[in-house]
Each structure stands twice: as C-alpha cells, then as structure tokens.
Design brief:
By secondary structure, the protein is mainly β. The protein has one domain. The protein is built from two helices and twelve strands; from the N terminus they run αβββββαβββββββ. Strands 1, 2, 3, 4, 5, 6, 7, 8, 9, 10, 11 and 12 form a twelve-stranded mixed β-sheet that branches.
Length: 191
Amino acid sequence: MKYSLLMIAFLAAMPLPAGARDFSSTVSESNEIVHLRPEFKVPDEPGQLFYVQRSPNANSVVYAARLDAKGNFDSRNPVDAFWRKFNIDGSKKNLNFIERMMAYGVRVTAARQGQPVTFTIAALPERRLTLGWDAQHHPQATMTIGSRTVKLAYVYLQVEEGGLMPDVPSLDIVGTDTASGKAIREHLVQK
C-alpha cells in the first residue's frame, strides 16, 4: 500500500517532457499492410482490435474488445489491453500500473449502449479511436489519419531504452482505409 501511494505521488508530480507529443507526420498508401518487423509474431486474439509492437523485442501489447453476455461492447470496460510475452513463452500478462497510466492504458469516453465508443491510449491522448463493428460484424478500432478513416491494424514503436522512461523517437500507425481498402501508414517522428 505504501509503495502504491508513493508511486501515485511520484507520477502526479512528474511533469511531461517539453515537446513529448510534438511529432512531424508523413502518410503513405500501399496495396497491402506491410509488417515493419516480419520476424515478430503477429498476435491473434479473440476480439482483437489492434496491437503495439516495440523495437527491442517481439513482446506485443494487444487491444481487444470486451463484450457483454448479449454480444454488445461491455459498457464499463469495452477495451482490454494486455501483453503477449512472445520473447518468453507467449503468455498473457496484464499491464502494470505505470504502463497503464503512462503508456498503453485505455481511457474511454462515457459509452452508451449501442453507440460507438471513443477512447484514447495514455501515451497519445490527442488521438481518438472509435470502437465499432466492421461489415462482417467484427469489432474494430478506427481513427482519422489525414482526412481518412482508418481501421487500425497495428502500431510500431521505435524505442530507445535508458533513463527512467524509454524514449520513442518515432512510431508508425498502420491500418486500412475504410473507404478504399488501401493500406495506410502514418510515420511520426518526434521533433
């Protein structure tokens, strides 16, 4: 308990680095989704929306839709985020407190039954995602990239370890344009 209170106080007092969310962006289009690290296993989970891979190893954070007994999005917790530890044994592991608060945690805007759910990821709160259903009635997460609505497939983070928190000098957001079916890749580089 004492450790938890200390950690909460530390995180509350810690300022965000200047320019931490200041990125330049380029968007490209192709006929199919390109996997930036083809040697990394691609997660395949029930209700999977998208996943995040990081340059240091094949471990992935998976985002999956949670459904209630009626097959609707769970109104209290519609999106689950967890690790798949592919560089060890493929086991599922919950995010820890710091990972949820500072990096991979999900923040949901109040969800109403039968309505699209909007949410953000802790590290990129300015990027809104919408939880909904695709044409085959599979859960999907969409976001706007440029002027396009994109069904998110994965995010790749170029990570530089060291210090208290790892640095992410660049990241790629990859998905499919819901109108054209083309693969869209947004490459973001920290300024």
